[in-house]
Amino acid sequence: MTADILIIGGGVVGSSVAYHLRRDGFTGRVVVVERDPSYARASSNLAMGGIRQQFGSAVNIRMAQYSIAFYREFNARMSTSARPVDARFTQRGYLFLIDAESAGRVEGRLERQRALGARAERLSVDEVRRLVPDLWLDDIVFGVMGSEDGYADPKAVLAGFRSGAEAAGAEYLTGEVVAIHCTEGWATGVTLDDGDEIDAGIVVNAAGPYASLVAEMAGVSIPVQPVRQHLFRCALPRVWPYRFPMVIDPGGVHWRHVDPVSPGDPDRIVLAFTKPDEPAGENFACDDSRWEREFLPALVRRMPVLKNARLPVEGWAGLYEMTPDHNPVIGEHPRLRGFYLANGFSGHGLMMAPATGKAVSELIRLERSETVDVSPFAADRFERDALVRDEAMI
Q1: For every residue of 8-32, which 3-state class applies, written as one string?
Q2: Which of 173, 256, 340, 384 could form a disulfide with 246 if both were Cys (CB 3.0 to 4.6 A apart)?
Q3: How many Cβ atoms sit within 10 Å of the Cβ of residue 386?
């Protein structure tokens, strides 16, 4: 088989690259290789679904702005008469609670966000209390609310991106890449686990947490490691009188409402709490003890009304694809022509997938990224000590 562009990984990032290539006018053959079409362990399938433009660096803010505008139109873009799509993108906002320790940094970040056109509003403590009445705010000096931010249904986004890419003309194969062919400094194709070989003019690494293993097959390296991330979903003791935005506590725990899909669904929230010392490795085991030990105390501290409530809980774990500066690697590898990277999103893959697909499409077709300049995310920045600094990571 021959492909003009072969994409390794058919999750939200790989499918967004395929979709944008076709929609941007690329007429060659685009083939996406996905090893598990059930996506049972895909990072996007197991994600929280948050989408925000409240970042600290210009490149991340620009990426998020493109993605938010894209998600507003996602259903219309991805739906066909045979396969309607509803990503349930809800712009309920991101509310950052700011304590005295972080106030100075956040004030500066807020100014940068506003200068770039990001919608972010500084709220007094009383305004925060009116927005989310049950919060304990004695240690909070102000809040920052991004009203255009929100979240989407991760499973629906994943299915929608694949459906849209296929409708645009991308082809999907089920298989696992076991070797990448290189000739005179160029990536020229792959071998699959069934022995089939695919010649390709360009190979795109969109393998999520497994990106470094894919890079090694090509004889190059990228600093991307899989790191486990826990999520818990709990039923509230009653139907809550208001809807939670994404609430980000200074200590790190953050949560949002889970909107009911069917009448009679329980009123629930979903929570994340990144563990900074989580060891790298492929680990999908859910450590249920973290709920009682870390998640619940942090939630109750901020929401004392839940102190004596019984909260039925379900937990699961997925993988972040982490880089040393917690920002992605996007672009052609400096030591292997024709080998493009879309990796290392460190928990922001679904959030940034639309802008990533657009950027990679432009880099391949035009040899430059015009919509958003993603050159700060070049793979060699770690060697050049040019890390992307963004203090708004959670």
Answers
A1: ECCCHHHHHHHHHHHHCCCCCCEEE
A2: 256
A3: 13
Residue 392: what pLDDT?
78
Q: CA-to-CA distance for 383 and 215, rounded, in angstroms? A: 17
Query: What range does the domain containing 289 cover?
Result: 94-148+226-321
Q: What is the pTM of this model?
A: 0.96
| pLDDT tens digits, 263-300 | 888 999 999 999 999 999 999 999 999 999 999 999 99
Q: Is residue 394 part of a domain?
A: no
Is residue 355 over pLDDT 90? yes
Residue 27 and residue 48 in one domain? yes
Rounded to the nearest integer, the mean pLDDT of the chain is 96
Reading the block at residue 293, the tokens are: 């030990």
Nearest-angstrom CA–CA distance, 205 and 113: 31
Phi first, then psi, for residue 301 (nearest 5°) are: -60, -40
Find the CATH number of the domain harbouring 292. 3.30.9.10
State what percent of residues in the chain have pLDDT above 70. Answer: 100
Q: Considering its fold, how many domains does the chain have in total? A: 2
**Residue 204 DSSP SS3:** strand
**Mean pLDDT within 164-183:** 98
Tokens of 191: 């071998």
Residues 158, 142 share a domain: no
